[in-house]
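# step 3/5: fold
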Amino acid sequence: MRVHAALALALFACIGCGDPSPARGTAFPESWRYRDTPAPVTATNGMVVTTDELASQVGVDVLRSGGNAMDAAVAVMFALAVVNPEAGNLGGDGFLVLRTAGGETAALDFRARAPFASTRDMYLDDAGEVTEDVVVGHLSVGVPGTVDGMWQIHRRFGRMEWAALLDPAIELAGGFPVRPRFLNSLGDAMVAALQAFPASAEQFLPRGGQPPAVGDTLRQPDLASTLRRLRDLGRDDFYAGETADLIIAEMERGGGILTRRDLAEYQAVWREPVAFEYRDHTVISMPPPSSGGVTMAQTAGILERYDLASLGWQSARTIHLHAEAWRRGYADRNHYLADPDFVEMPLENLTSAAYASERGATISLDAATPSSEIGPGLESAGEAATSPGATVPEEGENTTHYSIVDADGNAVSVTTTVNSWYGSKVTVTGAGFILNNDMDDLAARPGFANQFGLVQGENNAIEPGKRMLSSMSPTIVLGPDGELRMVTGTPGGATIITTVFQTISNVVDFEMDVVEAVLAPRVHHQHLPDQIFYEAGALSPETVSRLEALGHVVVERGGLSGDVQMIVVVDGLLTAWSDPRRGGRALGY
């Protein structure tokens, strides 16, 4: 039965009775591991929130030295390349959203590109099945964008000298103390994968082919040399100089297809952010080839029709509506979105209030809609793709996010990645950094799931020079007064979009402070596979039963979702929290 939203509360009068009211710390489920909610980190001059304390300190030091948020973003990126190499890396890529103190907004796309020698079916075997080459080894590598991205942000908005922003990373590459957060990425399977590549084993497995121990000093001399060249020669060293030579030598050594032309012609692109309204707040996020802004805009447009605060935080009613909005948003994401330089997309329609209303009108408030009945919404008769046996895989420490606000009010939100844990597993011999495996984010076989369970279509098929569709969603939110309210983002593969939206909703709909918004348990739906999955201990058995009664398949995932780094401005005060799911740090002054 399809019912207009005005009847939502009546229909839900019984479904979800007794579910928790909007969360305020102790309202989290009894089984939830992060029930304690300490006071936020606060500051008046500047705030840096990253997944690693050393990188956060680098950012704060830049701010204290007179740098702005954009300077700090560059310095933090290179610091993370040293202390968080499994995710933040010179051989990767990412997206950046900023808002200046004067109100200017911008989005920087430094996403990887497919090498020019790429072909549509390059990862299919004789039986038409996708091979491991798409995720491991030299053939999985896209043209890295991180270095040019940082160069572009520095040239347009930077205040400090480029060299000063590289020096902290060079010092860290000389040696930093190993802590549990770093070692969590080096389980037995990852150790075995890295051992297959001599330069990777030498770099990350210094104890005779095994990981370092907590307290060891990890020294990365080849990476330090690369960073010194970047400091002294700028981005051209990476794309046309000695570092480029080392990358090409590595490609030739392992049978890769990335060439000098690929490096020489790479360029990050400034794009217009996606901006949309949610309950009188303005949300500013990434446009394609990120899918974050468009998918969140549709989610917000659908959910704004409902009074979620009255329905109850994390109630069966609220989770049902989120899942229904997400399954529609991801169906459109996977069908329409791609590299805007290759594919014309109906972005104005997809982000419009009218389209959200149209999509929302198909939601049944007393029953889940099977994903098999949800296709792309702008097609005359679109049916959903199917992917038998697709599951949402365990999430790796493959991506990282950081958020920065400076004393002037400039705000920067950055998400960067090498795609999988340690990307392709290939370290550039003599250069000391891992290369991405971003080619899996293109559709090696359109209509079938990739490693994140995403079933993507023809628009994202492999083409030479094409940027890969991504879920990375660096986001900035303005309050009803037009002033800075939030800076947020997370890693997490396909879960990034739903996690970022939940952090925003936690503040806007349920009046959580930044600590509660970050610690709150998370749920996820991505159209295919057709299931709601939730973090271990995140839902009570009663809530699960109510969702199942509505027709949802509900699955408790192993482990946790995301690593949110968030800043919320409260009456001019910067409040922040770093997600304990991986163990970062918020630092301010």
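# step 4/5: annotate
The mean pLDDT is 92.
# step 5/5: archive (pending)
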